[in-house]
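To illustrate this point, what follows is a protein record of this kind.

___
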Amino acid sequence: MAEDTRQDKRASFSALTEHGTNGMTRTSSKTGASKKLVIKNFKDRPKLSENYTEDTWLKLRDAVGAIQNSTSIKYNLEELYQAVENLCSYKVSPTLYKQLRQVCEDHVQAQIHQFREESLDNLSFLKRMNRCWQDHCRQTIMIRSIFLFLDRTYVLQNSLLPSIWDTGLELFRTHIVSDVAVQKRTVEGLLEQIELERNGETIDRSLLRSLLGMLSDLQVYRDSFEERFLTETNRLYAAEGQRLMQERDVPEYLHHVARRLEEENDRIMSYLDQSTQKPLINCIEKQLLGEHMTAILQKGLSNLLDENRVTELTLLYQLFSKGKGGLPTLLQFWRDYIKSFGGEIVCTPEKDKDMVQDLLDFKDKMDNVVQSCFARNEAFINTMKEAFETFINKRPNKPAELIAKYVDSKLRAGNKEATEEELERILDKIMIIFRFIHGKDVFEAFYKKDLAKRLLVGKSASVDAEKSMLSKLKHECGAAFTSKLEGMFKDMELSKDIMIQFKQYMQNQSEPSNIELTVNILTMGYWPTYIPMEVHLPPEMVRLQEIFKSFYLGKHSGRKLQWQSTLGHCVLKAEFKEGKKELQVSLFQTLVLLMFNEGEEFTLEEIKLATGIEDGELRRTLQSLACGKARVLTKIPKSKDVEDGDKFSCNDDFKHKLFRIKINQIQMKETVEEQASTTERVFQDRQYQIDAAIVRIMKMRKSLSHNLLMSEVYNQLKFPVKPADLKKRIESLIDRDYMERDKENSNQYNYVA
């Protein structure tokens, strides 16, 4: 019977090592077949003697002591495991558990003395603590492997009892780590090592990882270490932020903050507990960024944007997007910068010449910042649009006028700066700026004036580009905005058809002319207003005009033709000593040059009398012929300006490498009066639109209060208008009996049918 029992116990150990957790599975060593022997009742076993129990415990205690003292174990581990199983099988588990706990506790209590040594420096103390912890863990694992049967039967069945491993942790926490002096030195040592690393020194990270893992395993990490660590971190970075904001420029400071965040994230990955990540990063962001957001932006945003520091702007955005309230603060400063910089471009008259190009460059630059640095953030894109719209309308009318002139410079013949594709891109960019303008009617007025010049003088670089621009304006502002501009193009096309018919008509004339006449028929409502100038044309020209008039009115009765001499141009054949040339000149230049077929020298006054050209225009005409690059006339005395009494004669010695020479008219720079005249016409048109809007609203509503009327008029108008101007138009309509004030309430208006 005794032999069978021993055989069962050996089989029991063999099964446990194979299955790990099932202490009740047995394998027969005789047959090799597997079968389960379940102990249903402990009474089935003979009771062990007290001597056996005592001897077995002493054997186990010696083994535990050997493990704790790192000496060799006298007994076979299998034999020790079997002894524990025997004791547990005979109802001595509670006693065995208590005795084991007491032995372990006595050993742990004895370890505290090695930490009382005052002469140890902090690093040596940490190393000793780590060695003690590592030994304790190794010993606990070894002891648990011997007492595994106890751990997985008795302890598992009693939920209130901690496992052998947890008991080991509890004892180490209670008797070592919870000791006030030991805990204080441990935490101080850890903080000292971290501070050394933050200051650039190399430390033993594996030591910190092990000790902080110990605190975490012992569940004292947060209370004993983390709170103190975060407090010290807060203090460190608060002082560092204040100091570096004074010492460093913004780009350098931003790179420092990014480096600090990277370092702290690396510490979390290397040795700090993951639970520390959020409060630690929040602390750094608060002290290095949150406390200095306004100062950083005030000190450095303008410079970063001025110098287009893409890397630093990207970093700035990334850092501010992490901090609480960072992006709204950045957004406000971004808006203020655009308004300030753009306002300087728009509101500085000295920069008018380059205003539009500067605006385009500025818009490109800001677009690039949003795309490359601000992650295409919609809030920043919308804010940029609002800021552009605000500053570009700070100076009414002028930006619209200059944009029209800029478009003219790009669409005019002779502009060789861009290919068709590049020109299309430039026009697209101009349209973006154009969208921000409130007074689009001012743009229309100046654009129409310049378009007329390009079409009539044949200076348009490309019909396709012209029509592309027209299409863009139509898409942006609607058909009503471009109807007159489209009418101008239609006039030019119809004029070509009429001239084909006129040439056929001239061929049937009994007296054909030596002069080839080309006429553009312009519908007065489509084109800018031109002041007619009466000049003395040669009889042949007058005869041709009459023939054309007869031809045209014969086809279109009831119409009236008005000749615009200021827009005429001619090609003259001239003969000089060098040979024959063709001169491409204006009508005024033509009238002056034709005089020299009748005589050799004329004074300014004589030319004026013979041609009938207005004095200022005549002086500019003579200046272009006698003082320009192609001097077909000689002036006496020689000077740059034409003065009273100057005499002019034909320059027979005129030489030029080209056969056909274009002599440009001296363009009088658009005077303030002319600009004011165009603006005044826009203002007049606006008054008509305001009047029409008020009458339309009153006719529909019959009666309205002053404030409601003002509000509805503002909603209908597409251009800015001052309340005082609106009030004047209301008074004007009252005077003209379109509306009246209510007799009982002066703030109420009634429509007069």
Remarks:
- Residues 70 and 139 are 8 Å apart (CA to CA).
- The chain has 30 helices and eleven strands.
- The first helix runs from residue 2 to 19.
- Residues 1-46 have pLDDT under 50 and may be disordered.
